Amino acid sequence: MKKYKNFGLLVLALFFALPAAAQLGEERHNFAVGINGGLNMSTVSFNPKIKLNTLNTMSAGVTMRYMSEKYFKMMCGVQMEINYSQRGWDEKIEDESGNSYSRTMNYLEIPFMAHLAFGKDALNRGVKVFFNAGPQIGFFLGDNEKINWTTSTTRPEHGKEVENKFDYGITAGAGLEVSTGIGHFLLEGRYYMGLSDFYKNSKRDYFERSAHSFIGIRLSYLIDITK
């Protein structure tokens, strides 16, 4: 678990160092807000390991972005979102029992990311390539289990309630932005790696690790409030 946290801190330090280096650039004061929505291809890192399929879930929320600097061809800013996000897992059953189990977990998630863009200035129309990365926190709202289990014994995770309702990790993504006269349209691929466990992980507990991860596809629409 420690190596995951160290890796996450290193990624964040490197990424946030880039906007800091741009403070000698040309100032921008461009604030935009909008909506986002998309698909999460979710799984969970369990230890002891459980064989899983990807669980397709949804995400939707509000996006706020502030662009503060332009340094040569790189535009720097920050982006925050408040999302309703579903995660979870679907267990891979490799026998012929007909058993199945999946759990969808609902979170209020808040990523706070550095935003770097290359291409046409945000004040003009055109296409840009962008990168996002930063920390993310989440608050567990509830879950839904789908179980069809015909054998007499179930697994330790079946019916087990979430014990840690605060989630945190790092998220990073890249995509394309098309700026038009009616707003900004963004298509992004994003990855989230959880650094926390939703089950207790002491020596007397069954699971040493139970952390979320997902690959997301996001479509966002932003309109400028200030330029």
Quick structural summary:
By secondary structure, the chain is mainly beta. It has one helix and nine strands, in the order H-E-E-E-E-E-E-E-E-E.
**Secondary-structure content class:** mainly beta
Task: Count the beta strands.
Answer: 9
- Helix and strand string, N-terminal first? HEEEEEEEEE
User: Per CATH, which architecture?
Assistant: Beta Barrel
**How many domain regions?**
1
Oligomer: single chain
The main sheet orders its strands as 1-3-4-5-6-7-8-9
Helix percent band:
under 10%
- What fraction strand? over 45%
Mean pLDDT, nearest integer?
Answer: 88
The name of the CATH topology is: Porin
Radius of gyration: 20 Å
Low-pLDDT runs: none
Count of alpha/pi helices: 1
Keywords:
elongated, mainly beta, eight-stranded antiparallel barrel, Porin, 227 residues
